[in-house]
Fold this protein.
Amino acid sequence: MVRSRANLKVIAPPAKAARRASTGQPAPTAVVNTTQRIVDSIATAIVERRLMPGTKLAEQQIADLFKVSRTLVRQALNQLSRDRLVTLEPARGAFVARPSVDEARQVFEVRKMVEAALLRQLCARITDAQIVELRAHLKREADAVARTDVTGRTRLLADFHVVLARMLGNEVLAQLLADLLSRSSLIALMYQSSHSAEHSAHEHVAIVDALERRDARAAVRLLEAHLGNVERNLQLHPRVGDLAAVITPA
């Protein structure tokens, strides 16, 4: 007999909850929250350029800083590794990721091909309402750059490209671009200077101007120049900072 999944109820064995209460073991939600707190603190330190590429992330030191077990630290480092912010090396431990020059070049090369095709299609169908939406996004970018909001400007500068993809209505393309952006954003948020971020924001304005004119050729030319400038402005020789001095438990 086949039973509908809608009629099945999953009930956690009460014995597990009792064992956690009697032994002081944290509940699953508490574990997730603690792990996420470590992830957020390390990611923020990387985004704000307080933790530079190549910095060793010693499990015991992080565990002492957050007053948690090394198991939770290891879970956080595994999540950061999946997000490509951290590199896990056998027998050596975890390090803040250091994307190579070749990797950066390949990522931007693929982005140029994907985003050029995106702009050609979008230019033929973009609406006035979408132009207004893009202008609002550009305003948020400019505000974040002006107040030196490193976290905010990095997110907004990357989101600009995803917004373009979603306006096209192709979710597969949007997801592909989001993955490419996660890799190039990692590079940008660790290596991009405030001047480069401001320049990128201005280039986004020029791209939207071309879209508003429905000038596909100009939009693609500006995009390729923009990505080329971002790639050339990357600073790939950073200092290695001290772990305890830059991570503060949230």
